[in-house]
Design brief:
Length: 130
């Protein structure tokens, strides 16, 4: 198992995926790996800017802007589990200014927002779907 195998699995869907689900997929494909190996590979991919870790889900998803340092916001649907990556630099800058005013140094810039996506809202008959 190598990092590129995990990267391919993470990118194979639009839903964040946990380390143990990745481990199960690897095993189904006849490849063996131990949990620490999977976590190390995910950490490697994260440090290279290729995946993001969603702490609220303890899961990973592919980065829409790989290799580019950027503040990121995720819209996570509670119903279907999809995650949409947003990059609004104004949000990141506003948070950075507020943090600096409090003498706080930001290390991770991932903001997670949960709710319901347009598709799930439409499926439930939400009239406010735009």
């Amino acid at each position: 198992m190598c990092s590129s195998d995990l990267l391919e699995l993470v990118w194979s869907g639009h839903r964040p995926v946990g380390a143990y689900a990745l481990l199960d997929r690897l095993r189904r494909d006849g490849r063996s790996a131990a949990p620490p190996t999977v976590y190390r590979a995910l950490e490697f991919l994260q440090h290279r800017g290729l995946v993001h870790r969603l702490a609220s889900l303890n899961a990973y998803c592919g980065c829409a802007h790989p290799g580019e340092a950027h503040p990121v916001q995720f819209l996570i649907c509670r119903d279907c589990g999809t995650a949409a990556e947003l990059v609004d630099r104004r949000v990141g800058e506003a948070i950075g200014r507020s943090a600096a005013a409090h003498g706080f140094e930001i290390r991770d810039r991932v903001i997670e927002l949960s709710g319901r996506c347009r598709g799930c809202r439409a499926a439930k008959g939400d009239r406010r779907v735009s």
